[in-house]
């Protein structure tokens, strides 16, 4: 049986995955994202959670067609930012330190960094096990530099190789 901390982290992670209106996400897509984040959860549980969370937060459901799409209302910017801060704090204090990305995602990251694909903004976007998000410039990769710039704080992290980057908890987003 999951602990209260596991349930809280899952709910915060779920809220983080819900896009701002007019974009939407279905319960099935949320279930898949949560499974990718290492949560074992059924689609029905996600549906129940969405209904409960919509009573507390400014979540809206597009019930015009099935599957229903969920999003944060246009006025929910502050609540969405608060969720991000709560999740970052929860992870930072180490309550969820046993979280790690799958070997398949780590391998996909190795391949992506090796292939240096064309992107719309000349960066490969990254995420960390502790909740941070960053990006690596394609131009740095061409020069064999593994430099991640934190998207929120602009902090810069230098790694000597891809394995060191992976060990520090970074994978493609």
Q: How far apart lie the N and C ends?
A: 29 Å
**Number of DSSP strand runs:** 7
Q: Whole-number radius of gyration?
A: 17 Å
Q: Given the helix and strand composition, which structural class is it?
A: alpha+beta
Overall average residue pLDDT: 81
- The CATH topology of the largest domain is given as Arc Repressor Mutant, subunit A
Strand order of the largest sheet: 6-5-4-3-7
Q: What's the name of the CATH homologous superfamily of the largest domain?
A: Winged helix-like DNA-binding domain superfamily/Winged helix DNA-binding domain
Q: What does the oligomeric state look like here? A: single chain
Count of DSSP-assigned helices: 7
- The stretches of 5 or more residues where confidence is low (pLDDT under 50) are none
CATH hierarchy: architecture of the largest domain: Orthogonal Bundle
The rough form would be described as elongated
What is the share of helical residues?
A: 40-55%
CATH class of the largest domain: Mainly Alpha
Beta content: 15-25%
Count of discrete structural domains: 2
């Amino acid at each position: 049986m999951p602990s209260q901390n596991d349930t809280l982290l899952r709910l915060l992670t779920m809220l983080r995955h819900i896009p701002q209106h007019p974009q939407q996400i279905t319960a099935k897509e949320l279930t898949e994202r949560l499974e990718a984040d290492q949560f074992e959860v059924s689609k029905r549980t996600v549906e129940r959670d969405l209904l409960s969370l919509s009573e507390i937060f400014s979540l809206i459901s597009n019930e015009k067609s099935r599957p229903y799409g969920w999003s944060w209302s246009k006025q929910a910017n502050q609540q969405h930012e608060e969720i991000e801060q709560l999740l970052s704090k929860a992870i930072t204090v180490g309550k969820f330190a046993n979280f790690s990305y799958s070997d398949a995602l780590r391998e996909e990251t190795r391949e992506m960094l090796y292939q240096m694909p064309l992107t719309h903004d000349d960066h490969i976007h990254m995420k960390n096990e502790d909740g941070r998000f960053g990006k690596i410039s394609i131009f740095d990769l061409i020069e064999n530099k593994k430099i991640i710039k934190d998207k929120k704080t602009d902090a810069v992290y230098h790694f000597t190789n891809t394995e060191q980057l992976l060990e520090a908890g970074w994978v493609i987003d």
